[in-house]
Write a structure and sequence with these properties.
The protein is an alpha+beta fold. The chain contains five helices and 25 strands. The strands form five sheets. It has a six-stranded antiparallel β-barrel with strand order 19-20-21-24-23-22.
Length: 375
C-alpha cells in the first residue's frame, strides 16, 4: 500500500517535470521566433531612418513575413539590407507616399473628427495609418457611444492623395491607466506616499546632464521613486510633460545615478540595448506594470491617435493585451528593445495604448538610455 502510494507520487512527479520541460521548450521556441522578428524589425528601422524620402510603412503578418512599402522603387541599398537576413520579405513598391506623408494625412482628420464627435470620456476615436488593411488605408474607429455619427460624414473628410478611409464603430473606449489616489508602488505621491504610476525607461535630457525616468504624462507631477526590494525612496524633480498631442509622457530628474535597465517582470531586470517603435503585426511585444505584472502579445497598430478622459494622444502603439490602473508609465518592450511607455487601457480589456519610444524622445527632448552608459 505504501509502496503503491510512493510509486504514484513518483509518476506524478515525472509528469510534472515533463510538463515543465515541455513548457520551457515551447517558451524558448516562441522567444526564438520573436527574436528573429525583432532582428528584422531592427533592420527595417535602419532603412526607415536612412531612407525617409522612400520608406512608406512596414508591418508583419504572423510574426514571420515582413512587408515593407516604398513610395517608388525600393532603393538598391535598402533592398540589400533587408534581403541580407533569413526572414521572408515582401516589397510593396510605388505606393505613392512616404511614411511622413501617410502620418500627416491621418493627422489632418484628428481635429475634424473630434469636432464632429464632440469627443468626451464616453465617446471618442482611434485614428491612424493601417497598412495591414491595404495600401494607403487610414483607419477611423468611432469608439463608445457614437452610433449617432454617420460613417459617410466621416468618409467625406478623406484627405487628398492616394489614401483610402475605412470607418467603423466600436464600443472600445480608452481610459488612463493610473491609480489616482489608490495604493500602489514604484512611483508614489511625494505628498501622501500612495502609489500613482509605474516608472518607465531611464532617459537623459538632450543638451544637459539631467538623468531620470520617463513615465506617463497624465501621472502627477509630484512623484517619488520607490524600490520595493530595498525600500529606498527619494523624491524626483518634474522637468517636462509633453504636449498631449505628441503623446502621453513626462520626464522626472533623479538626484541619484540610474542604470539603463528596466523591469521586464517582477524581480527581473533587463538592459536596454536598442530603442525603436514596433511595426504593426510585430509579435513578442510586452509591457510591465506594477499592478498587472508582465503581459505579452502583438502590436495591432502604430502611429495612432486615441482619445481618453485627459484628451487626444498621438504617437500611440496599440497592443492586444490589457492592463489595470497603476500600469501607466511602465515599459513597453520586446526583448531588450525599448518600444514605448504604457498610457491607457480599453474598458473592454482587449487593448493597451502606449506612447512610442520615438514619441517619448521627441515630445520630451530626451534620449532613452542604452546600456552600458547613458552619455
Amino acid at each position: 500500500m505504501l509502496l503503491g502510494a510512493t510509486a504514484s507520487v513518483a509518476a506524478a512527479g515525472d509528469s510534472i517535470v515533463d510538463s515543465a520541460v515541455f513548457a520551457n521548450a515551447v517558451a524558448d521556441a516562441e522567444e526564438s521566433r520573436w527574436q528573429s522578428a525583432r532582428d528584422v524589425g531592427a533592420t527595417i528601422a535602419t532603412v526607415e531612418s536612412d531612407y525617409p524620402d522612400d520608406f512608406a510603412y512596414a508591418y508583419f503578418t504572423d510574426d514571420t513575413v515582413a512587408h515593407v512599402g516604398f513610395k517608388a522603387g525600393a532603393p538598391e541599398r535598402a533592398r540589400d539590407l533587408l534581403e541580407g537576413g533569413d526572414s521572408r520579405l515582401e516589397f510593396e513598391e510605388y505606393v505613392g507616399f512616404t511614411q511622413d506623408e501617410y502620418i500627416a494625412a491621418a493627422a489632418t482628420l484628428v481635429d475634424q473628427v473630434g469636432v464632429m464627435l464632440d469627443a468626451s470620456p464616453d465617446r471618442g476615436f482611434i485614428i491612424g495609418p493601417d497598412p495591414v488593411a491595404g495600401r494607403g488605408v487610414i483607419r477611423v474607429v468611432l469608439t463608445g457611444d457614437t452610433a449617432d455619427v454617420p460613417e459617410p460624414g466621416i468618409s467625406s473628410l478623406l484627405p487628398p492623395g492616394p489614401f483610402v478611409l475605412q470607418v467603423s464603430h466600436s464600443p472600445t473606449v480608452f481610459e488612463d491607466a493610473s491609480y489616482g489616489r489608490a495604493g500602489g508602488t514604484w512611483l508614489v505621491s511625494t505628498l501622501t506616499g500612495l502609489g500613482q504610476c509605474t516608472s518607465g525607461f531611464v532617459a537623459k535630457r538632450r543638451g544637459s546632464t539631467q538623468l531620470g525616468v520617463a513615465t506617463a504624462g497624465h501621472c502627477p507631477d509630484n512623484l517619488s521613486y520607490y524600490h520595493e526590494g530595498t525600500h529606498e525612496v527619494y523624491p524626483l524633480a518634474h522637468v517636462v510633460t509633453s504636449s498631449i498631442g505628441r503623446g502621453d509622457s513626462q520626464f522626472h530628474r533623479s538626484s541619484r545615478m540610474m542604470d539603463a535597465w528596466f523591469h521586464a517582470d517582477t524581480n527581473a531586470g533587463r538592459p536596454v540595448l536598442d530603442v525603436r517603435t514596433p511595426y504593426a503585426g510585430e509579435g513578442g511585444v510586452c509591457a510591465y506594470g506594477k499592478t498587472t505584472g508582465r503581459k505579452c502579445g502583438s502590436a495591432v497598430a502604430v502611429n495612432q491617435w486615441i482619445t481618453t478622459q485627459t484628451g487626444t494622444k498621438g504617437n500611440q502603439v496599440l497592443t492586444n493585451f490589457s492592463g489595470a490602473e497603476g500600469d501607466s508609465g511602465g515599459p513597453l518592450y520586446g526583448g531588450n528593445t525599448a518600444f514605448g511607455i504604457v498610457s491607457s487601457i480599453s474598458q473592454d480589456g482587449l487593448l493597451t495604448a502606449s506612447t512610442s519610444s520615438s514619441g517619448v524622445e521627441f515630445g520630451l527632448n530626451v534620449d532613452i538610455c542604452r546600456h552600458p552608459v547613458c552619455s
